[in-house]
Specification:
Helix content: 40-55%
Organism: Aurantiacibacter gilvus
CATH topology: TIM Barrel
Order of helices and strands: EHEHEHEHEHEHHEHEHH
Oligomer: single chain
CATH superfamily: Divalent-metal-dependent TIM barrel enzymes
Number of helices: 10
Keywords: Isomerase
Shape: globular
GO molecular function: isomerase activity
Number of domains: 1
Strand content: 5-15%
Structural class: alpha/beta
Protein name: Sugar phosphate isomerase/epimerase family protein
Pfam families: AP_endonuc_2
């Protein structure tokens, strides 16, 4: 397993100015980072950023979401669907230019948008058709899409690993899989560890976020992180364990994730203590 950390802890748009933080991440022993891409209009920027990460010996994945004018895959409005196809296509292109092979996140609906009811059959069919339409580009650029079920307060289409697995079955292609996040599972799954085991058995698990119940430093809350890591080790999972923690450094992200107080004294606490916690759990698994 490889250990990563999502750079949304510092910024929503990574530039070379973040090099001191990236150097500290590399020196701590992380295998890689998760790069947020919300502005996918400049592939050359991500090509250059990829060179920096290569210099530091950091592998990478990408996180993204449909926000603002990025479109909506489940909308009955064709222009909104077209905007979603364009946005995700641009993200996939930038991901490949970055030298990454995976885009993770809730790439199935507009983030934080609700209808007042649960997902309808027509919405699920539209989403599956949207994802199927994206498969040729994903395949062509060598990129896998990891759909991240979110808790009910952030999304309504996919909240559980089982729902994510079912949507992937509708698509029926290995380029579209499911991300398991310990924070969201802590809210939505009746038994988070059993849900993870079932997801792995389905063959749809492609990525894991290690996120504490308060989205602070892993190991300082009550999310089943230890049990998650031990199970993944027993199952010979060989993908990423990527820390996802949020602070108040990015105001718009803090608002979107409802972060109203500090969960750690400094983001580097998450870097050092989070990595040590995961490494210790792997060594004792």
């Amino acid at each position: 397993m490889r250990i990563g950390i999502n750079l949304l802890l510092w910024t929503g748009h990574v530039t070379r100015d973040l090099r001191p933080v990236l150097e500290e991440i590399a020196a701590t022993g992380f295998d890689g980072v998760e790069v947020p891409i919300f502005d996918a209009t400049d592939p050359a920027h991500y090509r250059d950023l990829g060179r920096l990460l290569d210099d530091l010996g950091l592998a990478r994945t990408v996180s993204s979401a449909f926000t603002g004018a990025a479109g909506n895959p489940v909308s009955p409005d064709e222009p909104e669907q077209a905007a979603a196809r364009t946005f995700l296509g641009d993200v996939v292109n930038c991901t490949a230019e970055l030298g990454a092979d995976m885009v993770v996140g809730p790439m199935f609906q507009q983030l934080g948008q609700f209808t007042g009811v649960g997902p309808t059959e027509s919405e699920l069919e539209r989403c599956a058709a949207f994802l199927s339409d994206m498969v040729p580009q994903l395949d062509g650029r060598g990129v896998t899409l990891a759909l991240e079920p979110l808790n009910r307060f952030e999304a309504y289409l996919l909240n559980t690993a089982e729902q994510g697995q079912a949507l992937c079955s509708r698509v029926g292609h290995s380029r579209v899989g499911v991300l398991y996040d310990t924070f969201h599972a802590n809210i939505e799954e009746k038994d988070p560890v059993t849900a993870l085991g079932d997801l792995h058995a389905s063959g749809r698990l492609v990525h894991v976020h290690i996120s504490e119940n308060d989205r602070g430093t892993p190991g300082k809350g009550h999310a089943k992180i230890r049990e998650t890591i031990h199970l993944l080790d027993a199952l010979d999972y060989d993908g990423w364990l990527t820390i996802e923690a949020f602070g108040k450094a990015v105001p718009e992200l803090a608002a979107a994730t409802c972060v109203w107080r500090d969960f750690f004294a400094d983001p580097l606490e998450v870097v050092h203590e989070g990595h040590a916690y995961i490494r210790d759990r792997l060594e004792t698994a």
